[in-house]
Structure to design on (227 residues):
């Protein structure tokens, strides 16, 4: 069965960076784009971008261009999302989500809480 | 950027009642690029519907989706206790950007 298992919660200071991992299993990792979505406390879902695990190509939402980096390691079927220059506004749960056959996100990781606090 | 507006923001209903959730796009989108998700507190979103009207694996038949162009609807024919949750629509555009609606909370009346 498809599983996306994310790394554990993080506490970071303002100005630092955070790198979240997402280990995929149960399907061909290089066959489907991986998206990243975040959700601030009590807020809705905010799309951050995607990575093509096959080519490593990426596309970031305009808001995050210049301070998010998505990478992958195909040898261990793992995608990564790194966010730099953190502020308190970046406190959120970060999800990875596998793109389905068309445009849907059919499987989601359990989420990683990133707390930014001085 | 395509903006998705969901209404109402909160829907207060009783178990057994019918729920109708709306998702309106700022410009026309392809039906195949419209999805719906359910999210419960402390959980990741779960895919309910893809292609506007195709139920995802394991989703009960009481959930149905419809619509085209700029207006889409998620209907829950008879609310079960486990259906009280947040619901989001999502579109995947040609840019290729992805956007979510602001969500509709279905709460127990």
């Amino acid at each position: 069965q498809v599983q996306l298992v994310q790394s554990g919660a993080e506490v970071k200071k303002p100005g630092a960076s955070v790198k979240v991992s997402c280990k995929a299993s149960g399907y061909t990792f290089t066959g489907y784009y991986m998206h990243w979505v975040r959700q601030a406390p009590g807020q809705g879902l905010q799309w951050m971008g995607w990575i093509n695990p096959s080519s490593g190509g990426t596309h970031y939402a305009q808001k995050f261009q210049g301070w998010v980096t998505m990478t992958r390691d195909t040898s261990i079927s793992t995608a990564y999302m790194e966010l730099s220059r953190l502020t308190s506004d970046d406190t959120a749960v970060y999800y990875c989500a596998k793109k389905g056959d068309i445009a849907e996100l059919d499987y989601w990781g359990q989420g990683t809480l990133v707390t930014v606090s001085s | 950027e395509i903006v998705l507006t969901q209404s109402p923001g909160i829907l207060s209903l009783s178990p057994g009642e019918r729920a109708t959730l709306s998702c309106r796009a700022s410009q026309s989108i392809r039906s195949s690029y419209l999805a719906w998700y359910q999210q419960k507190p402390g959980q990741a979103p779960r895919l309910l519907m893809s292609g506007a009207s195709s139920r995802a694996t394991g989703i009960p038949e009481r959930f149905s989706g419809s619509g085209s162009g700029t207006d889409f609807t998620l209907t829950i024919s008879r609310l079960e206790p486990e259906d009280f949750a947040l619901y989001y629509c999502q579109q995947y555009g040609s840019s290729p950007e992805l956007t979510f609606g602001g969500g509709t909370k279905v709460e127990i009346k």
Remarks:
- Chain A is about 0% helix and 50% strand.
- Chain A touches chain B through 23 residues (CB under 8 Å).
- The mean pLDDT of chain A is 97.
